[in-house]
TrEMBL record:
Residues 20-96, 148-224 form the Lipoyl-binding domain. The keyword Acyltransferase applies. The keyword Protein transport does not apply. It comes from Coccomyxa subellipsoidea (strain C-169) (Green microalga). This is Acetyltransferase component of pyruvate dehydrogenase complex. Keywords: Acyltransferase, Lipoyl, Pyruvate, Transferase.
Protein backbone atom coordinates (compact mmCIF):
# COMPACT_ATOMS: atom_id res chain seq x y z
CA UNK A 1 0.00 0.00 0.00
CA UNK A 2 1.10 3.59 -0.51
CA UNK A 3 0.75 6.86 1.38
CA UNK A 4 -1.15 9.68 -0.31
CA UNK A 5 -1.59 12.01 2.69
CA UNK A 6 1.62 13.66 3.87
CA UNK A 7 2.54 16.23 6.52
CA UNK A 8 5.24 18.80 5.82
CA UNK A 9 6.48 21.93 7.54
CA UNK A 10 8.18 24.21 5.04
CA UNK A 11 11.00 26.30 6.53
CA UNK A 12 13.01 29.07 4.93
CA UNK A 13 16.57 30.16 5.48
CA UNK A 14 16.50 30.88 9.23
CA UNK A 15 18.75 30.15 12.16
CA UNK A 16 21.65 29.79 9.72
CA UNK A 17 19.99 26.88 7.89
CA UNK A 18 19.26 26.79 4.14
CA UNK A 19 15.65 26.47 2.90
CA UNK A 20 14.33 23.01 3.75
CA UNK A 21 11.23 20.95 4.39
CA UNK A 22 10.58 19.09 7.65
CA UNK A 23 8.76 15.81 7.00
CA UNK A 24 6.40 14.77 9.75
CA UNK A 25 4.92 11.37 10.50
CA UNK A 26 1.79 11.24 8.30
CA UNK A 27 -1.63 9.92 9.29
CA UNK A 28 -1.99 7.02 6.88
CA UNK A 29 -5.41 6.04 8.17
CA UNK A 30 -8.15 8.09 9.87
CA UNK A 31 -7.64 6.21 13.14
CA UNK A 32 -3.84 6.38 13.16
CA UNK A 33 -2.37 8.42 16.03
CA UNK A 34 1.18 7.02 15.93
CA UNK A 35 3.36 4.78 13.78
CA UNK A 36 6.72 3.04 13.47
CA UNK A 37 9.52 3.58 10.94
CA UNK A 38 10.02 0.05 9.65
CA UNK A 39 12.83 0.91 7.21
CA UNK A 40 14.20 3.92 5.35
CA UNK A 41 14.53 3.19 1.63
CA UNK A 42 16.57 6.36 1.05
CA UNK A 43 19.69 7.34 2.98
CA UNK A 44 20.97 10.74 4.06
CA UNK A 45 22.38 12.64 1.10
CA UNK A 46 20.50 10.49 -1.39
CA UNK A 47 18.49 12.10 -4.15
CA UNK A 48 14.90 11.00 -4.86
CA UNK A 49 12.28 11.65 -7.51
CA UNK A 50 8.49 11.95 -7.34
CA UNK A 51 7.04 8.49 -6.77
CA UNK A 52 10.15 7.06 -5.08
CA UNK A 53 9.55 5.20 -1.81
CA UNK A 54 11.21 7.13 1.02
CA UNK A 55 10.50 4.65 3.79
CA UNK A 56 8.15 1.93 5.05
CA UNK A 57 5.79 3.04 7.84
CA UNK A 58 4.04 0.57 10.11
CA UNK A 59 0.58 1.95 10.96
CA UNK A 60 -2.26 0.67 13.09
CA UNK A 61 -3.54 -1.08 9.96
CA UNK A 62 -0.60 -2.28 7.87
CA UNK A 63 2.94 -1.56 6.70
CA UNK A 64 2.76 1.05 3.95
CA UNK A 65 5.15 2.75 1.54
CA UNK A 66 5.63 6.46 2.05
CA UNK A 67 6.14 7.90 -1.44
CA UNK A 68 7.73 11.22 -2.34
CA UNK A 69 5.37 13.62 -4.09
CA UNK A 70 8.20 15.74 -5.49
CA UNK A 71 11.91 15.51 -6.18
CA UNK A 72 14.56 16.49 -3.65
CA UNK A 73 17.43 15.27 -1.46
CA UNK A 74 17.13 13.57 1.94
CA UNK A 75 19.26 15.80 4.16
CA UNK A 76 18.69 14.29 7.62
CA UNK A 77 16.88 11.31 9.13
CA UNK A 78 15.51 12.27 12.56
CA UNK A 79 13.87 8.92 13.34
CA UNK A 80 16.07 5.95 12.33
CA UNK A 81 14.99 2.47 11.26
CA UNK A 82 12.98 0.71 13.96
CA UNK A 83 11.83 3.85 15.79
CA UNK A 84 8.48 3.03 17.39
CA UNK A 85 5.38 4.83 18.65
CA UNK A 86 6.05 8.09 16.77
CA UNK A 87 3.10 10.45 17.19
CA UNK A 88 1.47 11.70 13.99
CA UNK A 89 2.95 15.09 13.14
CA UNK A 90 6.31 14.41 14.83
CA UNK A 91 9.33 15.41 12.66
CA UNK A 92 11.04 12.35 11.17
CA UNK A 93 13.27 13.77 8.41
CA UNK A 94 14.47 16.88 6.60
CA UNK A 95 14.57 17.29 2.82
CA UNK A 96 16.21 19.99 0.69
CA UNK A 97 16.10 20.95 -2.97
CA UNK A 98 19.85 21.43 -3.35
CA UNK A 99 22.29 18.60 -2.59
CA UNK A 100 24.84 21.25 -1.63
CA UNK A 101 22.71 22.10 1.42
CA UNK A 102 22.83 18.60 2.95
CA UNK A 103 25.98 19.23 5.00
CA UNK A 104 24.30 22.09 6.87
CA UNK A 105 21.96 19.58 8.55
CA UNK A 106 24.64 17.21 9.86
CA UNK A 107 23.95 18.13 13.50
CA UNK A 108 20.30 19.09 13.05
CA UNK A 109 17.92 17.93 15.81
CA UNK A 110 14.12 18.22 16.17
CA UNK A 111 14.56 21.02 18.68
CA UNK A 112 17.01 23.13 16.69
CA UNK A 113 16.92 25.55 13.81
CA UNK A 114 13.64 26.08 12.00
CA UNK A 115 11.90 23.30 13.90
CA UNK A 116 12.16 25.31 17.07
CA UNK A 117 10.71 28.32 15.31
CA UNK A 118 7.06 27.22 15.13
CA UNK A 119 6.94 26.66 18.89
CA UNK A 120 8.39 30.09 19.55
CA UNK A 121 6.37 31.74 16.82
CA UNK A 122 3.17 30.51 18.43
CA UNK A 123 3.62 33.35 20.89
CA UNK A 124 4.17 35.89 18.10
CA UNK A 125 2.33 34.91 14.93
CA UNK A 126 -1.26 33.62 14.83
CA UNK A 127 -0.48 31.91 11.49
CA UNK A 128 1.26 29.10 13.35
CA UNK A 129 -1.33 29.11 16.13
CA UNK A 130 -4.32 28.86 13.84
CA UNK A 131 -2.86 26.14 11.66
CA UNK A 132 -2.50 24.00 14.76
CA UNK A 133 -6.17 24.69 15.48
CA UNK A 134 -6.89 22.74 12.30
CA UNK A 135 -4.89 19.53 12.62
CA UNK A 136 -4.51 17.17 9.70
CA UNK A 137 -6.51 14.53 11.55
CA UNK A 138 -7.83 14.63 15.11
CA UNK A 139 -10.24 12.26 16.70
CA UNK A 140 -12.19 11.80 19.83
CA UNK A 141 -15.62 12.14 21.35
CA UNK A 142 -15.38 15.66 22.79
CA UNK A 143 -18.27 18.08 22.68
CA UNK A 144 -20.82 15.25 23.25
CA UNK A 145 -20.11 13.89 19.77
CA UNK A 146 -19.60 10.16 19.10
CA UNK A 147 -16.04 9.00 18.31
CA UNK A 148 -14.99 10.56 15.02
CA UNK A 149 -12.06 11.80 12.97
CA UNK A 150 -11.75 15.35 11.70
CA UNK A 151 -10.12 15.12 8.27
CA UNK A 152 -7.76 17.99 7.43
CA UNK A 153 -6.80 18.97 3.89
CA UNK A 154 -3.71 16.85 3.14
CA UNK A 155 -0.43 18.13 1.67
CA UNK A 156 -0.34 16.28 -1.66
CA UNK A 157 3.04 17.77 -2.58
CA UNK A 158 5.87 19.07 -0.39
CA UNK A 159 5.40 22.61 -1.72
CA UNK A 160 1.62 22.65 -1.20
CA UNK A 161 0.46 25.14 1.43
CA UNK A 162 -3.17 25.41 0.38
CA UNK A 163 -5.56 23.80 -2.07
CA UNK A 164 -9.03 23.86 -3.59
CA UNK A 165 -11.77 21.22 -3.34
CA UNK A 166 -12.54 20.70 -7.02
CA UNK A 167 -15.24 18.09 -6.34
CA UNK A 168 -16.31 15.81 -3.52
CA UNK A 169 -16.61 12.23 -4.77
CA UNK A 170 -18.33 11.16 -1.55
CA UNK A 171 -21.21 12.96 0.13
CA UNK A 172 -22.33 13.07 3.76
CA UNK A 173 -23.67 9.66 4.72
CA UNK A 174 -21.75 7.77 2.02
CA UNK A 175 -19.80 4.67 2.92
CA UNK A 176 -16.08 4.75 2.10
CA UNK A 177 -13.72 1.84 1.49
CA UNK A 178 -9.93 1.97 1.62
CA UNK A 179 -8.68 3.18 -1.76
CA UNK A 180 -11.88 5.05 -2.67
CA UNK A 181 -11.46 8.59 -3.97
CA UNK A 182 -12.93 10.99 -1.41
CA UNK A 183 -12.42 14.18 -3.37
CA UNK A 184 -10.52 15.81 -6.20
CA UNK A 185 -8.11 18.38 -4.78
CA UNK A 186 -6.52 21.10 -6.88
CA UNK A 187 -2.97 21.53 -5.59
CA UNK A 188 -0.12 23.82 -6.58
CA UNK A 189 0.84 21.17 -9.17
CA UNK A 190 -2.29 19.49 -10.56
CA UNK A 191 -5.73 18.15 -9.71
CA UNK A 192 -5.26 14.95 -7.73
CA UNK A 193 -7.45 12.28 -6.17
CA UNK A 194 -7.52 12.19 -2.37
CA UNK A 195 -7.83 8.51 -1.51
CA UNK A 196 -9.19 7.04 1.70
CA UNK A 197 -6.81 4.85 3.68
CA UNK A 198 -9.51 3.18 5.77
CA UNK A 199 -13.13 1.98 5.77
CA UNK A 200 -15.88 4.09 7.30
CA UNK A 201 -18.48 6.78 6.57
CA UNK A 202 -18.43 10.46 5.69
CA UNK A 203 -20.48 12.04 8.48
CA UNK A 204 -20.18 15.68 7.44
CA UNK A 205 -18.59 17.82 4.72
CA UNK A 206 -17.28 21.04 6.27
CA UNK A 207 -16.47 22.80 2.98
CA UNK A 208 -18.44 22.61 -0.28
CA UNK A 209 -17.41 21.78 -3.84
CA UNK A 210 -15.35 24.61 -5.25
CA UNK A 211 -14.00 25.82 -1.90
CA UNK A 212 -10.72 27.64 -2.62
CA UNK A 213 -7.48 28.57 -0.85
CA UNK A 214 -7.95 26.11 2.01
CA UNK A 215 -4.77 25.98 4.15
CA UNK A 216 -3.23 22.52 4.50
CA UNK A 217 -4.53 20.90 7.68
CA UNK A 218 -7.77 22.90 7.80
CA UNK A 219 -10.84 20.76 8.70
CA UNK A 220 -12.76 19.77 5.58
CA UNK A 221 -14.78 16.69 6.62
CA UNK A 222 -15.73 14.37 9.48
CA UNK A 223 -15.17 10.61 9.29
CA UNK A 224 -16.81 7.96 11.51
CA UNK A 225 -16.60 4.19 11.69
CA UNK A 226 -20.17 3.66 12.93
CA UNK A 227 -22.97 4.44 10.47
CA UNK A 228 -25.35 5.17 13.35
CA UNK A 229 -23.12 8.07 14.43
CA UNK A 230 -23.67 10.06 11.22
CA UNK A 231 -26.87 11.81 12.39
CA UNK A 232 -25.09 13.31 15.39
CA UNK A 233 -22.97 15.47 13.08
CA UNK A 234 -25.82 17.15 11.19
CA UNK A 235 -25.04 20.56 12.73
CA UNK A 236 -21.29 20.01 13.19
CA UNK A 237 -19.17 23.01 12.05
CA UNK A 238 -15.53 23.76 11.35
CA UNK A 239 -15.43 25.61 14.67
CA UNK A 240 -16.50 22.40 16.43
CA UNK A 241 -13.70 20.64 14.56
CA UNK A 242 -11.13 23.11 15.86
CA UNK A 243 -12.42 22.61 19.40
CA UNK A 244 -12.33 18.83 19.06
CA UNK A 245 -8.74 19.01 17.90
CA UNK A 246 -7.57 21.21 20.76
CA UNK A 247 -6.72 18.42 23.21
CA UNK A 248 -4.34 17.01 20.61
CA UNK A 249 -2.22 20.15 20.42
CA UNK A 250 -0.52 20.15 23.79
CA UNK A 251 1.13 16.72 23.57
CA UNK A 252 2.24 17.43 19.99
CA UNK A 253 4.08 20.64 20.90
CA UNK A 254 5.38 19.42 24.25
CA UNK A 255 7.27 16.41 22.92
CA UNK A 256 9.74 18.33 20.72
CA UNK A 257 10.19 20.92 23.47
CA UNK A 258 11.32 18.25 25.95
CA UNK A 259 13.69 16.63 23.46
CA UNK A 260 15.23 19.89 22.27
CA UNK A 261 16.65 21.02 25.62
CA UNK A 262 16.07 20.66 29.35
CA UNK A 263 15.25 24.37 29.55
CA UNK A 264 11.91 24.79 31.33
CA UNK A 265 10.80 27.87 29.38
CA UNK A 266 8.68 26.16 26.68
CA UNK A 267 6.76 24.05 29.18
CA UNK A 268 4.70 26.80 30.83
CA UNK A 269 3.43 27.97 27.46
CA UNK A 270 1.32 24.83 27.04
CA UNK A 271 -1.07 25.35 29.99
CA UNK A 272 -1.57 28.93 28.83
CA UNK A 273 -3.00 27.72 25.54
CA UNK A 274 -5.53 25.59 27.36
CA UNK A 275 -6.66 28.53 29.52
CA UNK A 276 -9.74 30.65 28.82
CA UNK A 277 -9.32 33.09 25.91
CA UNK A 278 -7.91 36.45 27.01
CA UNK A 279 -9.97 39.61 26.83
CA UNK A 280 -10.03 40.77 23.20
CA UNK A 281 -7.78 43.68 22.36
CA UNK A 282 -7.34 45.70 19.16
CA UNK A 283 -5.75 43.76 16.28
CA UNK A 284 -2.00 44.21 16.03
CA UNK A 285 -0.38 45.41 12.82
CA UNK A 286 3.20 45.07 11.66
CA UNK A 287 5.09 48.09 10.39
CA UNK A 288 3.42 49.13 7.18
CA UNK A 289 -0.10 48.40 8.46
CA UNK A 290 -0.32 44.65 7.78
CA UNK A 291 -2.82 43.15 10.23
CA UNK A 292 -1.58 40.10 12.14
CA UNK A 293 -4.17 37.39 11.53
CA UNK A 294 -4.31 33.67 10.92
CA UNK A 295 -4.94 32.30 7.39
CA UNK A 296 -8.28 30.83 8.46
CA UNK A 297 -9.37 34.15 9.97
CA UNK A 298 -8.47 35.94 6.75
CA UNK A 299 -10.46 33.41 4.73
CA UNK A 300 -13.54 33.86 6.95
CA UNK A 301 -13.30 37.63 6.61
CA UNK A 302 -12.82 37.46 2.85
CA UNK A 303 -15.78 35.10 2.38
CA UNK A 304 -18.04 37.29 4.56
CA UNK A 305 -16.91 40.52 2.92
CA UNK A 306 -15.85 42.17 6.17
CA UNK A 307 -12.80 44.31 6.97
CA UNK A 308 -10.57 42.10 9.12
CA UNK A 309 -8.78 45.16 10.51
CA UNK A 310 -11.97 46.03 12.43
CA UNK A 311 -11.86 42.77 14.42
CA UNK A 312 -10.57 42.78 18.03
CA UNK A 313 -7.71 40.33 18.34
CA UNK A 314 -7.76 37.77 21.14
CA UNK A 315 -4.84 35.66 19.88
CA UNK A 316 -1.23 35.84 21.03
CA UNK A 317 0.02 39.45 21.12
CA UNK A 318 -3.33 40.75 19.96
CA UNK A 319 -3.41 38.76 16.73
CA UNK A 320 -6.74 38.04 15.07
CA UNK A 321 -7.95 34.42 15.02
CA UNK A 322 -11.10 32.78 13.63
CA UNK A 323 -13.31 33.39 16.68
CA UNK A 324 -12.62 37.14 16.47
CA UNK A 325 -13.85 37.32 12.87
CA UNK A 326 -16.94 35.24 13.71
CA UNK A 327 -17.69 37.63 16.58
CA UNK A 328 -17.33 40.59 14.19
CA UNK A 329 -19.67 39.00 11.67
CA UNK A 330 -22.31 38.10 14.27
CA UNK A 331 -22.27 41.69 15.58
CA UNK A 332 -23.02 43.02 12.12
CA UNK A 333 -19.85 45.08 12.01
CA UNK A 334 -16.81 45.07 9.79
CA UNK A 335 -18.46 46.21 6.57
CA UNK A 336 -15.82 48.17 4.63
CA UNK A 337 -16.69 51.81 4.00
CA UNK A 338 -16.32 53.46 0.63
CA UNK A 339 -13.37 55.44 1.95
CA UNK A 340 -11.71 52.29 3.24
CA UNK A 341 -11.02 50.95 -0.24
CA UNK A 342 -9.99 53.77 -2.55
CA UNK A 343 -8.86 52.98 -6.05
CA UNK A 344 -5.06 52.66 -6.32
CA UNK A 345 -3.39 55.86 -7.44
CA UNK A 346 -3.10 56.20 -11.18
CA UNK A 347 -5.43 53.27 -11.93
CA UNK A 348 -7.56 53.87 -15.02
CA UNK A 349 -11.29 53.87 -14.44
CA UNK A 350 -13.55 51.63 -16.49
CA UNK A 351 -14.99 48.15 -16.70
CA UNK A 352 -12.79 45.16 -15.94
CA UNK A 353 -12.98 41.56 -14.76
CA UNK A 354 -10.79 40.03 -12.03
CA UNK A 355 -9.98 36.46 -13.02
CA UNK A 356 -8.95 34.34 -9.99
CA UNK A 357 -5.51 32.77 -10.29
CA UNK A 358 -5.46 28.98 -10.21
CA UNK A 359 -2.99 27.17 -7.98
CA UNK A 360 -1.03 26.11 -11.07
CA UNK A 361 -0.76 29.70 -12.33
CA UNK A 362 0.36 30.96 -8.92
CA UNK A 363 3.16 28.43 -8.54
CA UNK A 364 4.21 28.89 -12.17
CA UNK A 365 4.45 32.65 -11.64
CA UNK A 366 6.49 32.15 -8.49
CA UNK A 367 8.93 29.67 -10.03
CA UNK A 368 9.46 31.63 -13.25
CA UNK A 369 10.04 34.86 -11.33
CA UNK A 370 12.63 33.06 -9.20
CA UNK A 371 14.22 31.61 -12.34
CA UNK A 372 14.46 34.94 -14.14
CA UNK A 373 15.86 36.77 -11.11
CA UNK A 374 18.30 34.11 -9.83
CA UNK A 375 19.56 32.34 -12.97
CA UNK A 376 22.00 34.22 -15.27
CA UNK A 377 20.22 33.69 -18.59
CA UNK A 378 21.82 34.21 -21.98
CA UNK A 379 20.44 33.36 -25.42
CA UNK A 380 21.63 31.72 -28.64
CA UNK A 381 19.52 31.93 -31.81
CA UNK A 382 19.99 30.05 -35.08
CA UNK A 383 18.01 29.55 -38.29
CA UNK A 384 17.63 25.95 -39.51
CA UNK A 385 16.79 24.54 -42.93
CA UNK A 386 13.78 22.25 -42.43
CA UNK A 387 13.29 21.09 -46.04
CA UNK A 388 14.41 17.51 -45.44
CA UNK A 389 12.52 17.27 -42.15
CA UNK A 390 9.25 18.28 -43.81
CA UNK A 391 9.73 15.74 -46.62
CA UNK A 392 10.60 12.91 -44.20
CA UNK A 393 7.64 13.79 -41.99
CA UNK A 394 5.29 13.56 -44.97
CA UNK A 395 6.67 10.11 -45.87
CA UNK A 396 6.38 8.80 -42.31
CA UNK A 397 2.85 10.13 -41.86
CA UNK A 398 1.80 8.48 -45.11
CA UNK A 399 3.10 5.17 -43.74
CA UNK A 400 1.29 5.73 -40.42
CA UNK A 401 -2.00 6.79 -42.02
CA UNK A 402 -3.64 3.30 -41.86
CA UNK A 403 -3.08 3.17 -38.08
CA UNK A 404 -4.26 6.73 -37.52
CA UNK A 405 -0.87 7.89 -36.23
CA UNK A 406 0.65 11.24 -37.10
CA UNK A 407 4.06 12.70 -36.30
CA UNK A 408 4.34 16.44 -35.71
CA UNK A 409 7.28 18.76 -36.31
CA UNK A 410 7.50 19.10 -32.53
CA UNK A 411 8.05 15.34 -32.20
CA UNK A 412 11.13 15.68 -34.41
CA UNK A 413 12.32 18.60 -32.27
CA UNK A 414 11.96 16.58 -29.05
CA UNK A 415 13.86 13.66 -30.58
CA UNK A 416 16.60 15.91 -31.99
CA UNK A 417 16.94 17.70 -28.63
CA UNK A 418 17.32 14.38 -26.80
CA UNK A 419 19.93 13.07 -29.23
CA UNK A 420 21.85 16.37 -29.04
CA UNK A 421 21.84 16.06 -25.23
CA UNK A 422 23.28 12.57 -25.60
CA UNK A 423 25.99 13.92 -27.93
CA UNK A 424 26.73 16.99 -25.72
CA UNK A 425 25.93 15.62 -22.23
CA UNK A 426 27.27 18.61 -20.27
CA UNK A 427 24.12 20.54 -21.25
CA UNK A 428 21.99 17.79 -19.68
CA UNK A 429 22.89 19.10 -16.24
CA UNK A 430 21.87 21.29 -13.29
CA UNK A 431 23.65 23.72 -10.99
CA UNK A 432 24.40 22.96 -7.35
CA UNK A 433 26.44 25.15 -5.02
CA UNK A 434 29.42 22.80 -4.80
CA UNK A 435 29.09 20.86 -8.04
CA UNK A 436 27.33 20.53 -11.40
CA UNK A 437 25.16 17.42 -11.68
CA UNK A 438 25.24 15.77 -15.14
CA UNK A 439 22.26 13.46 -15.69
CA UNK A 440 22.64 10.06 -17.32
CA UNK A 441 18.98 9.94 -18.33
CA UNK A 442 17.53 12.26 -21.00
CA UNK A 443 14.04 13.37 -19.92
CA UNK A 444 12.57 16.20 -22.00
CA UNK A 445 9.94 18.51 -20.49
CA UNK A 446 7.42 19.75 -23.07
CA UNK A 447 5.54 23.01 -22.42
CA UNK A 448 1.75 22.56 -22.68
CA UNK A 449 -0.79 25.35 -22.28
CA UNK A 450 -3.80 24.32 -20.17
CA UNK A 451 -6.93 26.18 -19.00
CA UNK A 452 -5.28 26.61 -15.59
CA UNK A 453 -1.86 27.69 -16.81
CA UNK A 454 1.40 26.29 -18.15
CA UNK A 455 2.36 22.67 -17.45
CA UNK A 456 5.51 20.81 -18.49
CA UNK A 457 4.87 17.05 -18.70
CA UNK A 458 8.02 14.96 -19.15
CA UNK A 459 8.87 12.54 -21.98
CA UNK A 460 11.12 10.03 -20.22
CA UNK A 461 14.16 8.56 -22.03
CA UNK A 462 13.33 10.56 -25.16
CA UNK A 463 16.72 9.70 -26.68
CA UNK A 464 15.82 6.01 -26.99
CA UNK A 465 12.17 6.40 -28.01
CA UNK A 466 11.11 6.25 -31.65
CA UNK A 467 9.31 9.18 -33.25
CA UNK A 468 5.96 7.35 -33.16
CA UNK A 469 6.46 6.57 -29.44
CA UNK A 470 7.31 10.21 -28.69
CA UNK A 471 4.22 11.34 -30.63
CA UNK A 472 1.91 9.00 -28.70
CA UNK A 473 3.48 9.93 -25.35
CA UNK A 474 3.18 13.67 -25.95
CA UNK A 475 -0.46 13.37 -27.03
CA UNK A 476 -1.33 11.34 -23.92
CA UNK A 477 0.50 13.66 -21.53
CA UNK A 478 -0.91 16.81 -23.15
CA UNK A 479 -4.47 15.47 -22.85
CA UNK A 480 -3.94 14.65 -19.16
CA UNK A 481 -2.36 18.06 -18.54
CA UNK A 482 -5.32 19.91 -20.07
CA UNK A 483 -7.72 17.79 -18.00
CA UNK A 484 -5.68 18.43 -14.83
CA UNK A 485 -5.01 14.73 -14.37
CA UNK A 486 -1.21 14.60 -14.46
CA UNK A 487 0.47 12.69 -11.64
CA UNK A 488 3.53 14.25 -9.96
CA UNK A 489 5.85 11.70 -11.60
CA UNK A 490 4.60 12.86 -15.02
CA UNK A 491 5.57 16.53 -14.65
CA UNK A 492 8.67 16.47 -12.43
CA UNK A 493 12.26 15.40 -12.98
CA UNK A 494 12.85 16.72 -16.51
CA UNK A 495 16.45 17.48 -17.51
CA UNK A 496 15.79 19.83 -20.48
CA UNK A 497 12.75 21.70 -21.81
CA UNK A 498 11.20 22.46 -25.20
CA UNK A 499 8.65 25.24 -25.77
CA UNK A 500 7.12 25.55 -29.24
CA UNK A 501 5.01 28.55 -30.29
CA UNK A 502 5.52 28.00 -34.00
CA UNK A 503 1.93 26.87 -34.47
CA UNK A 504 0.84 30.42 -33.53
CA UNK A 505 3.00 32.00 -36.24
CA UNK A 506 5.63 33.30 -33.78
CA UNK A 507 8.91 33.82 -35.64
CA UNK A 508 11.17 33.57 -32.59
CA UNK A 509 11.13 34.12 -28.83
CA UNK A 510 13.26 33.55 -25.72
CA UNK A 511 11.90 31.22 -23.03
CA UNK A 512 12.58 31.25 -19.28
CA UNK A 513 14.58 28.32 -17.92
CA UNK A 514 12.62 25.76 -15.88
CA UNK A 515 14.79 25.19 -12.76
CA UNK A 516 16.72 23.13 -11.81
CA UNK A 517 17.34 22.55 -15.53
CA UNK A 518 20.09 24.55 -17.22
CA UNK A 519 18.56 25.17 -20.65
CA UNK A 520 15.33 25.45 -22.62
CA UNK A 521 14.77 25.53 -26.39
CA UNK A 522 12.22 28.01 -27.79
CA UNK A 523 10.95 27.02 -31.24
CA UNK A 524 9.43 29.47 -33.71
CA UNK A 525 7.36 28.93 -36.86
CA UNK A 526 8.68 27.20 -39.98
CA UNK A 527 8.33 29.65 -42.87
CA UNK A 528 9.34 29.66 -46.52
CA UNK A 529 12.15 32.13 -47.15
CA UNK A 530 14.59 32.85 -49.99
CA UNK A 531 18.01 31.70 -48.77
CA UNK A 532 21.35 30.66 -50.18
CA UNK A 533 21.33 27.07 -51.44
CA UNK A 534 24.05 24.46 -50.85
CA UNK A 535 24.74 24.07 -54.58
CA UNK A 536 25.05 27.81 -55.13
CA UNK A 537 22.56 30.52 -55.92
CA UNK A 538 19.37 31.32 -54.03
CA UNK A 539 16.08 29.49 -53.64
CA UNK A 540 13.05 29.08 -51.41
CA UNK A 541 13.45 26.86 -48.35
CA UNK A 542 11.53 26.10 -45.17
CA UNK A 543 13.36 27.92 -42.38
CA UNK A 544 12.86 27.39 -38.66
CA UNK A 545 14.25 29.78 -36.02
CA UNK A 546 15.14 28.40 -32.58
CA UNK A 547 16.49 30.18 -29.49
CA UNK A 548 18.30 28.38 -26.70
CA UNK A 549 18.15 29.97 -23.21
CA UNK A 550 21.11 28.84 -21.09
CA UNK A 551 22.14 29.06 -17.44
CA UNK A 552 25.61 30.61 -17.72
CA UNK A 553 26.68 28.91 -14.47
CA UNK A 554 26.39 25.54 -16.19
CA UNK A 555 26.44 26.11 -19.94
CA UNK A 556 29.12 28.43 -21.28
CA UNK A 557 28.63 30.08 -24.67
CA UNK A 558 30.83 27.65 -26.54
CA UNK A 559 29.10 24.65 -24.95
CA UNK A 560 25.68 26.03 -25.87
CA UNK A 561 26.90 26.58 -29.45
CA UNK A 562 28.15 22.96 -29.61
CA UNK A 563 24.74 21.72 -28.53
CA UNK A 564 22.97 23.85 -31.14
CA UNK A 565 25.37 22.56 -33.78
CA UNK A 566 24.49 18.97 -32.88
CA UNK A 567 20.77 19.82 -32.83
CA UNK A 568 21.08 21.52 -36.22
CA UNK A 569 22.67 18.40 -37.69
CA UNK A 570 19.68 16.25 -36.69
CA UNK A 571 17.08 18.77 -37.91
CA UNK A 572 18.73 19.46 -41.26
CA UNK A 573 19.51 15.77 -41.86
CA UNK A 574 16.64 14.06 -39.99
CA UNK A 575 17.36 10.61 -41.36
CA UNK A 576 20.28 10.47 -38.89
CA UNK A 577 17.72 10.40 -36.06
CA UNK A 578 16.61 7.00 -37.28
CA UNK A 579 20.06 5.41 -37.14
Amino acid sequence: MRCTSLLFHRAFASGGLPPHTVMEMPALSPTMSQGNIAEWKKKEGEEFAAGDVLCEVETDKATMDWEAQDEGVLAKILAPDGTKDIAVGTPVAVIVDDAGDVAAFKDFTPGSGALAAPAAAAQEEPEEEEEDDAPAESSGGSGNYPPHTVMGLPALSPTMSQGNIAEWKKKAGDEVAAGDSIAEVETDKATMDWESQDDGYIAKLLVPDGAKDIPVGSPVAVFVEDQDAIAAFKDFTAEDAAGAGAPKKAPKKEKPAKKAAPAPSPAPSEPKKAAAPPTPKPGTAWAGGRVVASPYARKLARDAGVDIAQASGSGPNGGIVARDVQQLISSGGGKPSAAAAPAPGGEAEGDYTDVPNSQIRRITAQRLLESKTTIPHYYLTVDLNADRLIKLRAQLNEALAPSGGKISVNDFIIKASALALRKVPDVNASWNTDFIRVYHNVDVSVAVQTPNGLMVPVVRDADILGLAEISATVKELAAKAKAGKLKPAEFTGGTFSVSNLGMYGIDEFAAIINPPQSAILAVGATKNKVVAQAGGGFGESAVMSVTMSCDHRVVDGALGAQWLQAFRGYIEDPATMLL
